[in-house]
C-alpha cells in the first residue's frame, strides 16, 4: 500500500514539475523563434547597410554617340550664338546646382548625335539673358567632343511653365532651347520661352569617335 | 466597399485592359512604340516613388547593367515584401523582425540598382539614423549614383508609411527595372516620352528688385533724417 502511494506521489511530483517546466520551455521556444528571427533580420540589415554592393557587370555603354551617360554637372561642350556674340557652357542636367554652371541639358532628352530632340535650358537672368534678341534664321552652334552641331532658329513659342508638349521625344535630330518668360518679370516667371531649331550640319560621329 | 461596387470596378478594369490590348495590336504599332511604352512605364514607376525629380534617375537607370542574378534577387526581394505587407494595413502593426526585414529588402534593392541612399536633415546635412530623434528635424532620403552624384530626393510623409503606399513603391521599383530591361534591348538611350520643362525660374530678379526698393526707401528716409539731425545740431553749436 505504502509503495503504491509512494509511486503515485512520485508521478504527481513529475506532473507538478513537468507542467511549469513545459510552460517555461514553450516560452523559451517562442522567444527563441521570434527573437532569433529578429536577431537574424537585424544582423542581415546591418550587413546590408555596411557592405558595399559590387555590381556584377560594368556600366552599360550605349551603341551610339555618347556611349557613356554623362554624370550630372559634367561638361558637354559650349553653345555659341554668333549673332548675339554669346558663348555659353553646357553641362549635363537641369537642376539648381547644374544651372548655376551654365545651360543645362535635360537628362531625359537625347544628346547631340543620338537622333532626337536635345533640350537645353538656362536662366533668363544669367546665361540666356540675350536669347530674346535671337531671330529666325540665326545660327546656333553646339560644340561637343564629336565636333560642331550647327542649328538654325526656326520658330519661337511662349508656353506656360507646366507645359508638357515641348519636352517630348522626337525621332529626328533637333535642338530646343528654353528659358523663363517674360525676360524682365519680377518674381517667378509664369511662362517659358521656347526656341525651336533645325539641324544644319553635324559631324560624322563614327569618324569623330576614331 | 460592397461586392457590387467591387464587381463594377473589376469589369471596368477588365474592359480597359481589353481596350489597351486591342490598341496595341492595331496596325502601325512598331518596335519604337514598344520602347516608348517601356519608357512611359519607367516614368510612371518613378513617379510612384514621389521623388522631387525623375529625369536623372530615368537616365541613370538606363546606364545600369544588371546581371541575371541581380535581377532575380530584386524580383525575389519584391515578392518577399509583398508577402510581408499583403495582410496588413499598417506597417506599425508588423512584428519587429518583419519591419527590419522590410527595411533590409528596400536597402538591398536600392543597392542592387547601383544606387546609394543617404538620409539628410532639412539643411541637407547627413543624419545618423541610429541617433535620430523623430521631430527634431525633417528627414529626407537622397538617392545618389555610386560616385555620390545626387539623382533625386525623397521627402517621406506619414502617408508613405501606409502599408499599401510602401508596397506600391517597392513594386514600382521592380516595374522600373522591368521597363529598363525592355528598353535596353535597343542598345540605345531612350528619351523620356514627355516631361515638364526644366524649372529655370530664380529668385535673382526679385531679390535685386527688393534690394533696389530697400535702397530707395532707405535713401528717402535718410534725407529727412539728415535734415533733422543738422537742425538739432545747429542750436547746440551756436
CATH superfamily of the largest domain in chain A: Sortase
Question: How many DSSP E strands of chain B?
Answer: 3
CATH-derived architecture of the largest domain in chain A: Beta Barrel
Beta-strand content bin of chain B: 5-15%
The gyration radius over C-alpha positions of chain A equals 35 Å
Element-level helix/strand string of chain B: HHHHHEEEHH
Q: For the report, how would you describe the main beta sheet of chain A?
A: 8 strands, mixed, barrel
Proportion of strand residues of chain A: 25-35%
CATH class of the largest domain in chain A: Mainly Beta
Structural class of chain B: mainly alpha
**What Rg of chain B is obtained from the alpha carbons, in whole angstroms?**
27 Å
pLDDT under 50 segments of chain A (min length 5)?
A: none
Q: How is this structure best described in words?
A:
The complex is a heterodimer of chains A (210) and B (238). Chain A contains three helices and eight strands. Chain A has helices at residues 2-50, 96-99, 205-209, and strands at 75-81, 86-92, 103-105, 117-121, 139-144, 147-160, 174-181, 191-201. An eight-stranded mixed beta barrel of chain A has the order 1-2-3-4-7-8-6-5. Chain B is 58% helix and 6% strand. Chain B is elongated. In chain B, 25% of the residues are buried. With 238 residues, chain B is mainly alpha-helical. Chain B has a three-stranded antiparallel sheet. Chain B is built from seven helices and three strands; from the N terminus they run αααααβββαα. Chains A and B meet through α1, β4 and β7 of A and α2, α3, α5 and α7 of B.
Structural descriptors:
heterodimer; A: 210 residues; alpha+beta; Sortase, Chain: A; 2 domains; 8 strands; elongated; B: 238 residues; mainly alpha; three-stranded antiparallel β-sheet; 3 strands; signal (chain B); transmembrane (chain B); membrane (chain B); transmembrane helix (chain B)
Amino acid at each position: 500500500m505504502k509503495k503504491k502511494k509512494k509511486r503515485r506521489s512520485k508521478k504527481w511530483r513529475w506532473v507538478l514539475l513537468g507542467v511549469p517546466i513545459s510552460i517555461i520551455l514553450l516560452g523559451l521556444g517562442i522567444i527563441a523563434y521570434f527573437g532569433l528571427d529578429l536577431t537574424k533580420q537585424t544582423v542581415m540589415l546591418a550587413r546590408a547597410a555596411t557592405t558595399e554592393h559590387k555590381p556584377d557587370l560594368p556600366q552599360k555603354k550605349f551603341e551610339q554617340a555618347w556611349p557613356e551617360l554623362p554624370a550630372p554637372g559634367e561638361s558637354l561642350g559650349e553653345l555659341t550664338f554668333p549673332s548675339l556674340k554669346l558663348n555659353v557652357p553646357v553641362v549635363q542636367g537641369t537642376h539648381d546646382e547644374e544651372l548655376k554652371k551654365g545651360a543645362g541639358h535635360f537628362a531625359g532628352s537625347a544628346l547631340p548625335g543620338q537622333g532626337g530632340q536635345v533640350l537645353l535650358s538656362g536662366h533668363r537672368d544669367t546665361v540666356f539673358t540675350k536669347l530674346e534678341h535671337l531671330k529666325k534664321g540665326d545660327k546656333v552652334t553646339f560644340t561637343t567632343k564629336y565636333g560642331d552641331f550647327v542649328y538654325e532658329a526656326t520658330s519661337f513659342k511662349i508656353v506656360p511653365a507646366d507645359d508638357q508638349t515641348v519636352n517630348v521625344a522626337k525621332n529626328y535630330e533637333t535642338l530646343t532651347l528654353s528659358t523663363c518668360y517674360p525676360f524682365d518679370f519680377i518674381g517667378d516667371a509664369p511662362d517659358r520661352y521656347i526656341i525651336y531649331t533645325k539641324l544644319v550640319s553635324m559631324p560624322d560621329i563614327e569618324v569623330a569617335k576614331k | 466597399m460592397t461586392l457590387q461596387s467591387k464587381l463594377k470596378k473589376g469589369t471596368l478594369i477588365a474592359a480597359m485592359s481589353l481596350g489597351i490590348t486591342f490598341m496595341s495590336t492595331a496596325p502601325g504599332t512598331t518596335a519604337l512604340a514598344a520602347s516608348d511604352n517601356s519608357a512611359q512605364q519607367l516614368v510612371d514607376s518613378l513617379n510612384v516613388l514621389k521623388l522631387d525629380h525623375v529625369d536623372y534617375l530615368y537616365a541613370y537607370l538606363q546606364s545600369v547593367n544588371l546581371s541575371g542574378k541581380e535581377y532575380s534577387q530584386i524580383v525575389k526581394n519584391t515578392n518577399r515584401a509583398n508577402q510581408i505587407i499583403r495582410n496588413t494595413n499598417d506597417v506599425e502593426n508588423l512584428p519587429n523582425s518583419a519591419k527590419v526585414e522590410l527595411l533590409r529588402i528596400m536597402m538591398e534593392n536600392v543597392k542592387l540598382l547601383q544606387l546609394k541612399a543617404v538620409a539628410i536633415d532639412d539643411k541637407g546635412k547627413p543624419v545618423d539614423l541610429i541617433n535620430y530623434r523623430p521631430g527634431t528635424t525633417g528627414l529626407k532620403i537622397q538617392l545618389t549614383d555610386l560616385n555620390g552624384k545626387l539623382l533625386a530626393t525623397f521627402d517621406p510623409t506619414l502617408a508613405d508609411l501606409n502599408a499599401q503606399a510602401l508596397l506600391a513603391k517597392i513594386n514600382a521599383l521592380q516595374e522600373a527595372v522591368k521597363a529598363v530591361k525592355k528598353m535596353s534591348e535597343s542598345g540605345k538611350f531612350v528619351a523620356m516620352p514627355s516631361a515638364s520643362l526644366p524649372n529655370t525660374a530664380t529668385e535673382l530678379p526679385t531679390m535685386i528688385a527688393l534690394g533696389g526698393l530697400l535702397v530707395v526707401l532707405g535713401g528717402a528716409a535718410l534725407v529727412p533724417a539728415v535734415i533733422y539731425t543738422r537742425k538739432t545740431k545747429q542750436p547746440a553749436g551756436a
